[in-house]
């Protein structure tokens, strides 16, 4: 098991054994402060964000500079490049695309049900990537020739470096690093499709290509596209995988949500506005993100001395904010280990807020992701039943997002 996959399980252990407490530990030979208190995460990521720079040197080395890895001016210009498209995305188009590709995905999942008792994550990845690419680039995913399995393999190999403190490596990591160049070249070559001068340019692609030509900004189209795919497609695919697991684990919740979904799609004018207003469906997505945040941790580095609620932070301290710990805090909800789709008063550290991070570097595609996922969910529930095939607790796999090792033990049965 890689360090990054192993730490996912460790974060859940910390959330149980040191609930609501920050922890000092050693990771890869480096002292690290694990933040599990929401008030301290808010201080680090929002109130005093200027004192805590991103600590992602290895991630940048593997995937290249992007909005995800950069700070300061480099982050700002990348944010300005893409954020307006996330802010003004076409909700009706997203709703229609998500409905279409969710229908295709559920058909594929039900066809494989007789041959497998596991969810095929590749089907979910194709679904989310199809919506993303067609929505923002007006191109069908299959037309690009991008092999998502190669991209996923590269992300898995590169993601081993997500939690490696700067300057510390082992023979394992050096050996894995040697495997990356061939994968990287293949991925970059595939993403080079978007440089084809004969390709119709959507507004976003036009702006990305123009930025790529400005040498001073050091923006590389393929680097931005890799991050775009990881943040915009992999996150939603991972969340929907965990959603299928929770539906199977809690059949009474599944039945209630199915009734709401069927009523919605049988109404005279189903629309994205109406769907987004169905509170139990929205809360289920939020609870999925809370229980199984696709990005469970963010790494920071203290620039100057600071103080948190429980202790001081010296300059140079490695910080890891655990969304698993924050979102399972017993101070904020009675039973943080089970989904609650009621009208809970516990709004602090809900999945639809903290799972997308906090402060100025909050995920720019949050609203897009929430709309497409509630649409996916409603289609899934209307067309299939989800049955648990194993009661074994999850073993975690870090693959740019937190997945389940071996896939979710869920059989998808057509209704």
UniProtKB/TrEMBL annotation:
InterPro entries cross-referenced by the UniProt entry: Cyt_P450, Cyt_P450_E_grp-I, Cyt_P450_sf, Cytochrome_P450_Monoox
Domain of life: Bacteria
Keyword presence, rRNA processing: no
Gene Ontology MF: a single term: heme binding
A family per Pfam: p450
Sorted UniProt keywords: Heme, Iron, Metal-binding, Monooxygenase, Oxidoreductase
Cofactors: heme
Residue positions binding heme: 363
PANTHER family: BIFUNCTIONAL ALBAFLAVENONE MONOOXYGENASE_TERPENE SYNTHASE (PTHR24291:SF50), CYTOCHROME P450 FAMILY 4 (PTHR24291)
Family statement drawn from the similarity comment of this UniProt entry: Belongs to the cytochrome P450 family.
Protein name (record): Cytochrome P450
Naturally occurring in which organism (per UniProt): Pseudochrobactrum asaccharolyticum
């Amino acid at each position: 098991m890689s360090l990054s996959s192993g730490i996912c399980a460790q974060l859940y252990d910390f959330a149980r054994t040191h609930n609501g407490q920050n922890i000092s530990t050693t990771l890869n030979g480096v002292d690290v402060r694990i933040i599990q208190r929401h008030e301290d995460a808010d201080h680090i990521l929002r109130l005093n964000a200027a004192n805590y720079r991103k600590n992602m040197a290895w991630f940048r080395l593997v995937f290249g500079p992007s909005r995800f890895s950069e700070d300061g001016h480099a982050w700002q210009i990348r944010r300005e490049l893409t954020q307006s498209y996330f802010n003004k995305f076409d909700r009706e188009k997203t709703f229609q695309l998500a409905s279409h590709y969710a229908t295709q995905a559920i058909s594929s999942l039900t066809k494989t049900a007789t041959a497998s008792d596991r969810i095929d994550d590749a089907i979910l990845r194709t679904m989310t990537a199809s919506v993303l690419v067609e929505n923002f680039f007006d191109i069908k995913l299959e037309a690009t020739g991008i092999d998502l399995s190669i991209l996923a393999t590269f992300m898995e190999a590169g993601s081993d470096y997500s939690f490696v403190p700067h300057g510390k490596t082992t023979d394992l990591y050096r050996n894995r690093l040697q495997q990356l160049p061939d994968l990287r070249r293949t991925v970059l070559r595939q993403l080079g499709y978007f440089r084809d001068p004969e390709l119709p340019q959507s507004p976003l692609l036009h702006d990305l290509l123009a930025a790529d030509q400005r040498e001073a900004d050091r923006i590389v189209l393929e680097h931005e596209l890799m991050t775009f795919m990881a943040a915009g497609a992999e996150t939603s695919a991972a969340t929907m995988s965990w959603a299928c697991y929770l539906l199977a684990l809690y059949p009474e919740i599944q039945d209630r949500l199915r009734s709401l979904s069927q009523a919605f799609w049988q109404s005279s004018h189903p629309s994205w506005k109406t769907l987004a207003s169905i509170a139990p469906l929205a809360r289920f997505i939020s609870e999925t993100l809370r229980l199984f945040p696709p990005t469970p941790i963010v790494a920071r580095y203290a620039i100057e001395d600071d103080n948190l609620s429980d202790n001081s932070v010296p300059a140079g301290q490695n910080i890891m904010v655990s969304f698993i710990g924050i979102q399972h805090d017993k101070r904020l909800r009675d039973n943080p280990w089970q989904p609650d789709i009621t009208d809970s008063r516990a709004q602090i550290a809900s999945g639809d807020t903290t799972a997308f991070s906090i402060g100025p570097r909050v995920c720019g595609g949050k609203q897009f992701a929430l709309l497409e996922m509630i649409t996916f969910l409603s289609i899934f529930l209307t067309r299939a039943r989800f049955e648990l095939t194993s009661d074994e607790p999850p073993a975690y796999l870090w693959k740019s997002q937190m997945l389940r090792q071996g896939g979710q033990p869920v059989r998808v049965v057509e209704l």
